[in-house]
Amino acid sequence: MAKPLLVFGLPLLMLVFQFIVLFATGHSKDDATRLNYIVMWLLPLVTVVAYLTTIQFNLGTTLDIRRIATLLVAIIFLSMGNYLPTVTLSDQSRRQPKNPTRFYHRIGYLLVGGGLALLVSLLFGPWVSTVILGLVIVGLIAVISL
């Protein structure tokens, strides 16, 4: 019962999540259309990778899930960090930072640096990826709290 539920339920669940993301980003009044396109394409990427990984694992293939998950997080960090400094939000945003350009540049540089560091960490042991991901999260919290 668990395998058929996962084989058919995972794509349906991800389809529901995709519709939620499309609805949330498609109706926003922000000028960040490129960032919206990136956000809209991240969920299908995660869906395809998760589905193929699940099928390969159930077929008995030995997979290093840590490397797959770290690669996926690194791609998300790189894509979001690459476009985040170019975002210009409308004045209707609820919580604008004091200096939005500087704020988005800092977060963008942190995400790109963290994504590159995560890619390099794939060559080392699992603890290196964990430490780098923890440092990126602490860095994000520090930048957001400024």
What does this protein structure show overall?
This protein is mainly alpha-helical and 146 residues long. Helices cover 77% and strands 0% of the residues. It has helices spanning 2-26, 33-58, 65-83, 100-121, 126-145. α1 (2-26) runs antiparallel to α2, α3 runs antiparallel to α4 and α4 packs antiparallel against α5 (126-145). The mean pLDDT is 82.
Quick summary of this structure?
With 146 residues, the protein is mostly helical. It has helices spanning 2-26, 33-58, 65-83, 100-121, 126-145.
Gyration radius, in Å = 18 Å
Oligomer: single chain
- What's the helical proportion of residues? over 70%
Structural class comes to: mainly alpha
Q: What series of H and E elements makes up the topology?
A: HHHHH
Task: Count every beta strand, where a strand is a DSSP E run of 2 or more residues.
Answer: 0
